[in-house]
Design a protein that fits this description.
6-stranded mixed beta sheet, 510 residues
Length: 510
């Protein structure tokens, strides 16, 4: 079977490719963003006829067709098939590569979209893959277009690890659809099987543990500790250079200030020009400015907050951290938080309040919250008469318990709410969307009908939550993966286990 691999970026991840080749004869015909051994192989797998692609070069519009064929243009039929997702790509491109939102014009973003689709169209037609395998969500400007054209035009099978820790634990699944993250490649085939027992004592105990207010998921607390505070810029710059060059050698150090072809834009010059991208110094200064913008934004937000009255009927709106892949891929049209708030505000019963709680990460030094939040954003919220903002540090479990319902775009708050018996209004979708009690809405009518149901006294049943946990445990595997420092690097045996999970997911999805 011919396979295109994307984002197996470290040696321990690339060993998954060699394991799939040796055990299941999955032949790599293109590898993008994968570690190649010194002998030109991946764990001994020959790559003589395999296309080697560099995702960072693709993001810089450096398309090398010398080892493929002349470019095969996309046509109107391809663009029409992908048109529902074009806006998501244009937003992703801005998030990953446009620092201020003005360096990539709308026309340039569309041109870039066609350029990178043309590249993957050429690769697919040159290699004839049976399967595309991503290590994680296809969510960057280099891999998302590959996912789109493969899945939604050529109907090629897709597999990827969902990096979200399911159940707030270290469970993960292999999925095949960004647009339906609760599918799990096999959910529909498993949920009716007789061996699922929602009254299983172990499942009930697990759900009880999830509803414990004193147990914050490890991936959240660890992330907060890592990113809340930033080191001074000179220390960060020194740490970057350390081990890369001898600082006493001025000529070598100077090269690090030159344009290193980062994929982030630095100016309004055309995207295909090398000097349109940031150099190292510009990158460090940009993130230093961003740190202070985040701090300033928090001060402004805190000037607008109120102490919530927990005795009035209210909806707790748990804001997502943005910019982030989960919001773009899972939120859909409601990635626009203001749009979701306006729909909710319009539909909300007149005597109810909506308490908006900003995601704490929006103000962290090492995050990019001020790229998607500004003073005007919070002013727009204040203009909605039935919405009040509360401190980002206010205990969210208290808000969940005292609320009539919880509203989310997407995020772990949805699961934390439903396990506590609280109905959830979900404007987006994620791994938890198949669970009864989490009600996905799209239209004004959906929201009004859902609120009417909640107002009549509806609450999720524990047996439905237990059932969903039982389903997940049938298809998920324990996999402690850290996408942020400190990274956990697993050995060859672990790589073989992940390879087996890919294979089993592929078989289940047939």
């Amino acid at each position: 079977m011919k396979v295109i691999y994307h984002s197996f970026s470290h040696k321990h991840k690339s060993e998954i490719i060699s394991s799939l080749h040796s055990k299941y004869n999955w032949e790599p015909v293109c590898v993008a963003g994968s570690t190649i051994d010194a002998d030109g192989t991946i764990g001994g797998v020959e790559l003589d006829d395999c296309i080697i692609s560099n995702p960072y070069k693709l993001r810089r519009a450096e398309f090398n067709y010398d080892e493929i064929t002349p470019p095969l243009p996309v046509d109107a039929s391809i663009l029409e098939a992908l048109s529902p997702y074009e806006g998501i790509f244009l937003d992703l491109l801005g998030t990953f590569q446009d620092n201020m939102g003005w360096e990539f014009s709308y026309a340039e973003r569309k041109d870039f979209y066609i350029d990178i689709l043309t590249y993957w169209n050429t690769v697919i037609n040159a290699t004839g893959p049976d399967l595309i395998v991503f290590y994680t969500w296809p969510h960057t400007p280099s891999c998302y277009p590959l996912y789109l054209i493969a899945k939604h035009y050529y109907k090629i099978d897709i597999l990827f690890i969902d990096p979200a820790p399911l159940l707030g634990l270290d469970y993960h699944v292999i999925s095949n659809s960004i647009e339906n993250l609760s599918n799990f490649s096999s959910y529909n085939n498993i949920q009716d099987n007789n061996f699922i027992n929602p009254t299983n004592e172990n499942v009930s105990l697990l759900v009880n543990d999830m509803a414990n207010d004193n147990l914050e998921p490890d991936h959240i607390t660890g992330e907060y500790d890592t990113f809340k505070h930033s080191k001074p810029i000179l220390r960060r710059f020194y740490n970057y250079l350390k081990g890369k060059t001898n600082l006493v050698n001025i000529s070598k150090a100077y090269k690090h200030f030159q344009n290193l072809n980062f994929d982030r834009k630095a100016n309004k010059k055309p995207y295909f020009m090398p000097n349109s991208r940031m150099n190292l110094l510009q990158k460090f200064i940009f993130f230093e400015k961003l740190k202070f913008k985040n701090r300033s934004l928090k001060k402004y937000y805190n000037s607008k907050i109120v102490m919530p009255d927990l005795n009035v009927p209210f909806i707790y709106f748990s804001a997502p951290y943005q910019p982030e892949a989960t919001s773009y891929l899972g939120g859909g049209y409601y990635e626009n938080v203001i749009l979701a708030l306006k729909v909710l505000s319009y539909s909300c019963p007149k005597d109810w309040v909506i308490y908006y709680k900003e995601h704490p990460s929006s103000f962290f030094d090492n995050f990019r919250g001020s790229l998607k939040r500004n003073n005007r954003f919070y002013e727009q919220i204040n203009e909605l008469q039935n919405i009040e903002m509360v401190s980002s540090d206010f205990n969210q479990f208290t808000l969940i318990k005292k609320s009539k319902a919880v509203a989310v775009i997407c995020g772990s708050t949805a699961w934390q709410s439903v396990v506590r018996g609280k109905p959830v209004i979900s404007f987006g979708q994620s791994w938890y969307s198949g669970c009864k009690g989490i009600m996905q809405v799209s239209s004004l009518k959906d929201v009004k009908d859902t609120l009417s149901l909640i107002n009549s006294g509806y609450t999720p049943e524990r047996k439905d939550v237990n059932h969903y946990v039982s389903v997940i445990k049938q298809v998920a595997f324990k996999f402690k993966e850290h996408y942020y420092p400190p990274f956990i690097v697993y050995d060859k045996i672990r790589a073989e286990e992940i390879a087996d999970e890919f294979y089993k997911a592929f078989i289940r999805s047939r």
